[in-house]
Design goal:
The protein contains six helices and two strands, in the order H-H-H-H-H-H-E-E. The chain is an all-alpha fold. The protein is elongated and about 65 Å long.
């Protein structure tokens, strides 16, 4: 019975790692599509989302089946709880990538009101946070996970900067108001991705240390 459960846990871990890689790839492609105004690339991101959604459902089914049949405890139960949350957060990151891809399609062929500088920077930071959070998950590295949480403030600062710049530019180009709102939504999507990467990192700390660190709190769980 124990061997069966360990095999199920390993399968879930492998699928989450694969899902995370797909989501990160989707995010990076969506920003590339926006920067290049590449509709074909944006459509590819939207097509990938179907596979991401199906894998998310598969992982959830595996987790619920394991909970029903194996009754994990202690460290295995913490893994299952964290995996269920991570699975959902990864799928949501994929949704944000689709949002960005849709914006790329909407704005294709339209000159941007300002060069895209801070948005790509935000994207790189957020995507790297996701990547590093997954590595922390693979190696159960709570130290790295805690460091990733701190990085969220960098993305928040860039978000504020992007919004301020967009507001300033659109004052002189009121005809670009619709585009300004669209780019502001991209910034919001990237800010949310960084928040979700932070969630992933907090889940790693929970798995490794049995501590809840959300909202600046540290509560131990047996």
């Amino acid at each position: 019975m124990k061997e069966k459960m360990q095999q199920l846990l390993e399968n879930i871990k492998k699928d989450i790692i694969f899902l995370a890689n797909e989501v990160e790839h989707s995010l990076r492609l969506s920003m590339k599509a926006l920067e290049r105004q590449d509709v074909q690339l944006a459509e590819q991101v939207k097509q990938m989302d179907n596979d991401i959604d199906q894998l998310e459902v598969k992982i959830e089914d595996q987790i619920l089946t394991l909970l029903a049949l194996q009754q994990p405890v202690a460290v295995d139960l913490r893994f299952i709880i964290a995996a269920l949350k991570m699975n959902n957060d990864l799928e949501r990151i994929g949704d944000h990538a689709v949002n960005i891809a849709n914006t790329a399609i909407k704005l294709a062929g339209e000159p941007y009101l300002k060069p895209l500088e801070d948005l790509p920077k935000m994207s790189r930071l957020a995507a790297q946070m996701v990547h590093d959070a997954v590595n922390a998950f693979i190696h159960l590295d709570s130290e790295t996970a805690r460091e990733i949480c701190v990085r969220d403030s960098e993305v928040d600062e860039l978000y504020d900067k992007v919004i301020a710049h967009i507001i300033e530019v659109v004052k002189d180009k009121p005809d670009k108001l619709e585009q300004a709102f669209a780019l502001a939504r991209v910034a919001r999507d990237l800010e949310r991705v960084a928040d979700l990467a932070t969630n992933l990192s907090e889940d790693v700390v929970f798995m490794k240390e049995a501590k809840i660190i959300r909202h600046g709190l540290e509560k131990e769980r047996e």
